[in-house]
Design goal:
This protein is α/β, with parallel strands linked by helices. The protein is built from seven helices and seven strands; from the N terminus they run H-H-E-H-E-H-E-H-H-H-E-E-E-E. The longest helix is centred in the C-terminal third of the chain and has 18 residues.
Protein backbone atom coordinates (compact mmCIF):
# COMPACT_ATOMS: atom_id res chain seq x y z
CA UNK A 1 0.00 0.00 0.00
CA UNK A 2 1.39 3.39 -0.99
CA UNK A 3 0.42 7.03 -0.49
CA UNK A 4 -1.78 8.22 -3.34
CA UNK A 5 -2.74 11.61 -4.75
CA UNK A 6 -6.29 12.20 -3.36
CA UNK A 7 -7.38 13.74 -6.68
CA UNK A 8 -5.64 11.68 -9.37
CA UNK A 9 -4.69 8.47 -7.57
CA UNK A 10 -1.07 8.88 -8.69
CA UNK A 11 1.70 7.46 -6.52
CA UNK A 12 3.39 9.99 -4.22
CA UNK A 13 6.84 8.97 -5.48
CA UNK A 14 5.83 9.82 -9.05
CA UNK A 15 4.39 13.20 -8.05
CA UNK A 16 7.39 14.16 -5.90
CA UNK A 17 10.16 12.97 -8.24
CA UNK A 18 12.45 15.64 -9.71
CA UNK A 19 14.10 14.76 -13.02
CA UNK A 20 17.85 14.36 -12.85
CA UNK A 21 18.12 14.06 -9.08
CA UNK A 22 18.11 10.29 -8.60
CA UNK A 23 18.40 8.91 -12.14
CA UNK A 24 21.58 7.22 -13.41
CA UNK A 25 23.59 9.61 -15.61
CA UNK A 26 27.23 8.60 -15.97
CA UNK A 27 28.12 11.45 -18.35
CA UNK A 28 26.77 14.04 -15.91
CA UNK A 29 28.58 12.36 -13.02
CA UNK A 30 31.89 12.44 -14.89
CA UNK A 31 31.42 16.12 -15.75
CA UNK A 32 30.69 16.99 -12.11
CA UNK A 33 33.69 14.93 -10.98
CA UNK A 34 36.05 16.75 -13.39
CA UNK A 35 34.71 20.08 -12.14
CA UNK A 36 35.43 19.00 -8.56
CA UNK A 37 39.00 18.02 -9.51
CA UNK A 38 39.54 21.44 -11.11
CA UNK A 39 38.05 23.38 -8.20
CA UNK A 40 40.11 21.44 -5.66
CA UNK A 41 43.23 21.44 -7.88
CA UNK A 42 43.60 17.71 -7.28
CA UNK A 43 43.63 14.80 -9.70
CA UNK A 44 43.45 12.20 -6.94
CA UNK A 45 40.49 12.43 -4.57
CA UNK A 46 39.50 10.27 -1.59
CA UNK A 47 36.03 9.80 -0.14
CA UNK A 48 34.82 7.75 2.82
CA UNK A 49 31.50 5.94 3.19
CA UNK A 50 30.40 5.51 6.80
CA UNK A 51 27.95 2.64 7.30
CA UNK A 52 26.80 -0.04 9.71
CA UNK A 53 28.80 -3.25 9.97
CA UNK A 54 25.88 -5.54 9.07
CA UNK A 55 26.26 -7.67 5.94
CA UNK A 56 23.68 -5.82 3.84
CA UNK A 57 25.10 -2.34 4.53
CA UNK A 58 28.65 -3.50 3.91
CA UNK A 59 27.75 -5.19 0.62
CA UNK A 60 25.88 -2.12 -0.63
CA UNK A 61 28.79 0.14 0.38
CA UNK A 62 31.19 -2.14 -1.51
CA UNK A 63 28.98 -1.97 -4.59
CA UNK A 64 28.92 1.84 -4.46
CA UNK A 65 32.68 1.86 -3.90
CA UNK A 66 33.20 -0.33 -6.98
CA UNK A 67 30.91 1.76 -9.18
CA UNK A 68 32.50 5.06 -8.18
CA UNK A 69 36.13 3.96 -8.50
CA UNK A 70 35.62 2.12 -11.79
CA UNK A 71 33.88 5.04 -13.51
CA UNK A 72 35.68 8.05 -12.01
CA UNK A 73 39.48 7.85 -12.60
CA UNK A 74 41.62 9.03 -9.70
CA UNK A 75 38.89 8.53 -7.10
CA UNK A 76 39.57 6.36 -4.06
CA UNK A 77 36.66 5.35 -1.81
CA UNK A 78 37.18 3.99 1.70
CA UNK A 79 34.51 2.14 3.66
CA UNK A 80 34.21 2.81 7.38
CA UNK A 81 31.93 0.07 8.69
CA UNK A 82 31.12 0.11 12.40
CA UNK A 83 28.40 -0.95 14.86
CA UNK A 84 25.15 0.91 14.24
CA UNK A 85 25.24 2.92 17.48
CA UNK A 86 28.84 3.99 16.82
CA UNK A 87 27.87 5.04 13.29
CA UNK A 88 24.97 7.12 14.62
CA UNK A 89 27.31 8.82 17.08
CA UNK A 90 29.79 9.85 14.38
CA UNK A 91 27.14 10.93 11.89
CA UNK A 92 25.17 12.96 14.45
CA UNK A 93 28.36 14.95 15.14
CA UNK A 94 28.91 15.55 11.42
CA UNK A 95 32.02 13.37 11.47
CA UNK A 96 31.56 11.77 8.04
CA UNK A 97 31.65 12.44 4.29
CA UNK A 98 29.08 10.00 2.91
CA UNK A 99 26.66 8.08 5.09
CA UNK A 100 24.83 4.96 3.97
CA UNK A 101 21.75 4.27 6.06
CA UNK A 102 18.14 3.14 5.71
CA UNK A 103 14.69 3.94 7.07
CA UNK A 104 11.78 1.58 7.61
CA UNK A 105 8.26 3.02 7.38
CA UNK A 106 5.61 2.17 9.97
CA UNK A 107 2.59 3.58 8.13
CA UNK A 108 1.71 4.63 4.57
CA UNK A 109 2.19 8.38 4.82
CA UNK A 110 5.12 10.33 3.33
CA UNK A 111 5.34 12.52 6.42
CA UNK A 112 6.97 9.73 8.40
CA UNK A 113 10.14 9.89 6.31
CA UNK A 114 9.93 13.57 5.32
CA UNK A 115 9.77 14.70 8.96
CA UNK A 116 13.31 13.35 9.40
CA UNK A 117 14.70 16.23 7.33
CA UNK A 118 13.07 19.06 9.28
CA UNK A 119 15.56 21.34 11.01
CA UNK A 120 14.51 20.35 14.55
CA UNK A 121 14.33 16.58 13.98
CA UNK A 122 16.57 14.42 16.17
CA UNK A 123 16.85 12.00 13.24
CA UNK A 124 18.21 14.68 10.89
CA UNK A 125 21.74 13.25 10.99
CA UNK A 126 22.85 15.17 7.91
CA UNK A 127 21.98 18.47 9.63
CA UNK A 128 19.98 19.51 6.56
CA UNK A 129 18.33 22.90 6.99
CA UNK A 130 15.88 24.57 4.63
CA UNK A 131 13.35 27.22 5.61
CA UNK A 132 11.16 26.46 2.59
CA UNK A 133 11.22 22.75 3.45
CA UNK A 134 10.31 23.44 7.07
CA UNK A 135 7.45 25.71 5.97
CA UNK A 136 6.01 23.04 3.68
CA UNK A 137 6.15 20.43 6.44
CA UNK A 138 4.67 22.82 9.00
CA UNK A 139 1.77 23.54 6.64
CA UNK A 140 1.21 19.80 6.05
CA UNK A 141 1.06 19.08 9.78
CA UNK A 142 -0.62 22.33 10.78
CA UNK A 143 -2.82 24.65 8.71
CA UNK A 144 -3.49 22.06 5.97
CA UNK A 145 -3.62 18.97 8.19
CA UNK A 146 -7.37 18.46 7.70
CA UNK A 147 -7.40 19.23 3.97
CA UNK A 148 -6.23 16.06 2.21
CA UNK A 149 -5.48 17.74 -1.13
CA UNK A 150 -3.57 20.72 0.29
CA UNK A 151 -1.68 18.51 2.74
CA UNK A 152 -0.67 16.16 -0.06
CA UNK A 153 0.62 19.08 -2.15
CA UNK A 154 2.60 20.38 0.85
CA UNK A 155 4.27 16.98 1.18
CA UNK A 156 5.00 16.82 -2.57
CA UNK A 157 6.56 20.28 -2.36
CA UNK A 158 8.73 19.22 0.57
CA UNK A 159 9.83 16.08 -1.27
CA UNK A 160 10.84 18.09 -4.34
CA UNK A 161 12.77 20.61 -2.26
CA UNK A 162 14.73 17.81 -0.57
CA UNK A 163 15.55 16.15 -3.91
CA UNK A 164 16.59 19.43 -5.54
CA UNK A 165 18.88 20.11 -2.58
CA UNK A 166 20.08 16.48 -2.54
CA UNK A 167 19.39 16.42 1.18
CA UNK A 168 19.36 12.66 0.72
CA UNK A 169 19.79 10.45 -2.34
CA UNK A 170 17.40 7.48 -2.39
CA UNK A 171 19.17 4.40 -3.75
CA UNK A 172 16.54 1.68 -3.64
CA UNK A 173 13.27 0.57 -2.06
CA UNK A 174 13.36 -2.71 -0.19
CA UNK A 175 10.80 -5.37 -1.07
CA UNK A 176 10.18 -8.96 -0.06
CA UNK A 177 8.08 -11.78 -1.53
CA UNK A 178 6.40 -14.58 0.42
CA UNK A 179 5.06 -17.87 -0.88
CA UNK A 180 1.99 -19.16 0.96
CA UNK A 181 0.57 -22.66 0.60
CA UNK A 182 -2.99 -22.66 -0.71
CA UNK A 183 -4.35 -24.75 2.18
CA UNK A 184 -3.33 -22.12 4.75
CA UNK A 185 -6.41 -19.97 5.26
CA UNK A 186 -7.46 -17.08 7.51
CA UNK A 187 -4.11 -15.27 7.62
CA UNK A 188 -4.56 -11.49 7.88
CA UNK A 189 -1.93 -9.34 6.15
CA UNK A 190 -1.12 -5.76 7.09
CA UNK A 191 -2.05 -3.61 4.08
CA UNK A 192 1.11 -1.53 4.40
CA UNK A 193 3.93 -3.64 5.79
CA UNK A 194 2.67 -7.01 4.59
CA UNK A 195 3.25 -8.50 8.05
CA UNK A 196 1.23 -11.67 8.64
CA UNK A 197 -1.09 -12.14 11.60
CA UNK A 198 -1.88 -15.81 12.26
CA UNK A 199 -4.43 -15.32 15.05
CA UNK A 200 -7.31 -16.48 12.82
CA UNK A 201 -5.26 -18.84 10.64
CA UNK A 202 -6.22 -22.47 10.00
CA UNK A 203 -5.25 -25.28 7.67
CA UNK A 204 -7.95 -26.29 5.20
Amino acid sequence: MKAKNPKTGADFVDDATVNGTVSYDLAKARTAYRQAQQQLHQKQLTLSITCGDDDASHQIAEFIQGQLTSHLPGLKVNIKAMPFTAMLGKVSKGDYQLNLTSWAMDFADPSQSLTILTSDSNSNMGHYQSKSYDRAMQAAEGTDALNATKRYQDLVQAGKIALNDQAVTPLYEGRSSILVKSHLQGVVYNNFSGAANYRTAYVK
